[in-house]
Design goal:
The chain is built from 14 helices and eight strands. It is of the alpha/beta class and about 300 residues long. The chain folds into two domains: about 240 residues, Phosphoenolpyruvate-binding domains (TIM Barrel, Alpha-Beta Barrel), CATH 3.20.20.60; about 45 residues, no CATH class. Strands 2-3-4-5-6 form a five-stranded parallel sheet. The longest helix is centred in the last third of the chain and has 20 residues. The model has no long low-confidence stretch (mean pLDDT about 95).
């Protein structure tokens, strides 16, 4: 009710422990669907997932903007903080290139800590960035990204806040260069590696072999990567998988179809069987607990 029942610090410990236990033949793959608002984060938690992801592409789209680095730190922290506020699952947010120079990266980490996130990922693209599964990306030099990571590590106050380094070098410089960058990022203090736009399981396996920290797989639709199952990803040592835009795409497909039907038929009556019922919405929101709280606090009436 109202907020998560656990603290941000405890959720960071949960993430650290889950990552340490993940991967390998018995550890399994942590599943983090992308929440496009706090309500979807509640549902992700109730359906038994391991964590919540906040996508920069989704946040930008929700603002009516393309994913090219236009969203600000304030907007990202506000939306991701609202999502983290309602869930007892650890939440990881896309922090793009860190919103500026190394000092800006340092501030980004502290703002996201204050917002209640369990971790974030920073990428090695040139700012302004592009969607990781589009052509025409550019990456900064390895040393510049290393400075970003070192700034993030130096700024972090909670050692359990997970700093993930994303490399987009596969599409620009090749798989070997991406692996070398990943090694340098781990040496700089990255807790996890996010190799973007891998084209096959063999490439995930190569990145797994390159580093001794957890690796993250991005299973976004309509991109460079095949949509592998968690079993397939686990077989090559992936620790965590995100589904960043899946829920937004599902929702927007239904929204667009519904708008067509209302426009063409003049009523939404034919759509009600496809809607989440009011009763189910109240279950997700735990509406009954709020009534109990009201009854227990406001349990008297003044006489007229």
């Amino acid at each position: 009710m109202l907020h998560a029942q656990t603290t941000a610090a405890s959720r960071r410990v949960t993430l650290r422990e889950a990552l340490a236990a993940s991967g390998g033949p018995d550890g399994g793959v942590l599943r983090f669907p992308g929440a496009f608002n706090p309500l979807t984060a509640l549902l992700i938690g109730q359906l038994g997932f391991d964590g919540v992801y906040v996508s920069g592409a989704v946040l930008s789209a929700d603002l009516g903007l393309p994913d090219i680095g236009l969203a600000t730190l304030t907007e990202v922290a506000g939306r991701s903080g609202a999502i983290a506020r309602v869930t007892d699952l650890p939440a990881i947010v896309d922090a793009d290139t860190g919103f500026g120079e190394p000092m800006n990266v340092a501030r980004t980490v502290q703002v996201l800590e204050d917002a209640g996130l369990a971790g974030c990922h920073l990428e090695d693209q040139v700012n302004p960035k592009r969607c990781g599964h589009l052509d025409g990306k550019s990456v900064v030099g390895t040393e510049e990204m290393v400075r970003r990571i070192r700034a993030a590590v130096a700024a972090r106050r909670d050692p359990n806040f997970v700093l993930c380094a994303r490399t987009d070098a596969r599409a620009v410089e090749g798989l070997g260069a991406a692996a070398e960058r990943a090694k340098a990022y781990v040496d700089a203090g990255a807790d996890m590696i996010f190799p973007e736009a891998m084209t096959g399981l063999d490439e995930f396996a190569a990145m797994r072999a390159a580093v001794d920290v957890p690796i993250l797989a991005n299973m976004t639709e309509f991109g460079k990567s095949e949509l592998f199952t968690v079993e397939q990803l686990g077989s090559v040592g992936v620790n965590l998988v995100i589904y960043p835009v899946t829920l937004l795409r599902l929702a927007m497909g239904a929204v667009e179809d519904g708008l067509h039907r209302i426009r063409d038929e003049g009523t939404q009556a034919g759509l009600t069987d496809r809607m989440q019922h009011r009763a189910r919405l109240y279950e997700v929101l735990d509406y009954a607990s709020y009534n109990v709280f009201d009854d227990s606090i406001f349990n008297f009436r003044l006489s007229d």
